[in-house]
Design brief:
The structure holds 2 protein chains of 2 kinds.
Chain A lengths: L4 E3 L2 E4 L5 E6 L6 E8 L3 E9 L2 E5 L6 E5 L5 E5 L8 E8 L11 E2 L3 E5 L1
Parallel strand pairs in A: 2-11
Antiparallel strand pairs in A: 1-3, 3-8, 4-5, 4-9, 5-6, 7-8, 9-10, 9-11
Chain B lengths: L3 E4 L2 E5 L4 E7 L6 E7 L6 E7 L4 E4 L2 E6 L4 E6 L8 E8 L6 E3 L3 E6 L1
Classes of the chains: A mainly beta, B mainly beta.
Chain lengths: ~120, ~110
């Protein structure tokens, strides 16, 4: 089974621009989560989608948004980019809708965004 | 709010020695605790996980223990090898939140 894929792998943008990142989950997985990873900050939760619905959102400004399509693929968008948005953006997928004893997430390779 | 503290932030051990990484969580409702290994430039990979209905789990050289009363869980790696060098993240999941809370990571260096 193919793993989680993300495109593009690398992006360079300038301040003020906007960017869209894409994530394709493992076949059959319906939950997709997004994380921002920066040195020293670990993995910060952005949002989680299941069946095209956002079920939780982390503490990020409204410039960060996302969506999920009917085939479970997901996109996230960052508008009006700032220097501090430079990071590795990871998505992760899981099979079921967070069962009572948790659910394993599998990560994609990430998109490295550099804002100049 | 929810929080996971992870210690130490860096750990150096001699090859063949054991390594222990500890995490403490704040939400007593947390019930699933995965550990991920992230090598430089690669994605986080699940190496072991534990659910709240068990106290210990082993997989070859790796083990995880959970103390629900103290709200902490630990990763134990025995007979460390150079290829164990990586950043390790712990995480905690609470029912109904649809997210993990991650620790800030431990950079493990295994010295040959």
């Amino acid at each position: 089974k193919a793993g989680v894929t993300q495109t593009p792998r690398y992006l360079i943008k300038t301040r003020g621009q906007q960017v869209t990142l894409s994530c394709s989950p493992i076949s059959g997985h319906r939950s997709v989560s997004w994380y921002q990873q920066t040195p020293g900050q670990g993995l910060q939760f952005l949002f989680e989608y299941f069946s095209e619905t956002q079920r939780n959102k982390g503490n990020f400004p409204g410039r960060f948004s996302g969506r999920q399509f009917s085939n479970s693929r997901s996109e996230m968008n960052v508008s009006t980019l700032e220097l501090g948005d430079s990071a590795l953006y990871l998505c992760a997928s899981s099979l079921v809708a967070w069962g009572p004893l948790g659910d394993t997430q599998y990560f994609g390779p990430g998109t490295r965004l550099t804002v100049l | 709010g929810e929080n996971v503290e992870q210690h130490p932030s860096t750990l150096s051990v001699q090859e063949g020695d054991s390594a222990v990484i500890k995490c403490t969580y704040s939400d007593s409702a947390s019930n699933y605790f995965p550990w991920y290994k992230q090598e430089l430039g690669k994605r986080p990979q699940l190496i072991i996980d534990i659910r709240s209905n068990v106290g210990e789990k082993k997989d070859q050289r790796i083990a995880v223990t959970l103390n629900k009363t103290a709200k902490h869980f630990s990763l134990h790696i025995t007979e460390t090898q150079p290829e164990d060098s990586a950043v390790y993240f712990c995480a905690a999941h609470s029912p109904g939140t649809y997210k993990y809370i991650f620790g800030t990571g431990t950079r493990l260096k295994v010295l040959a």
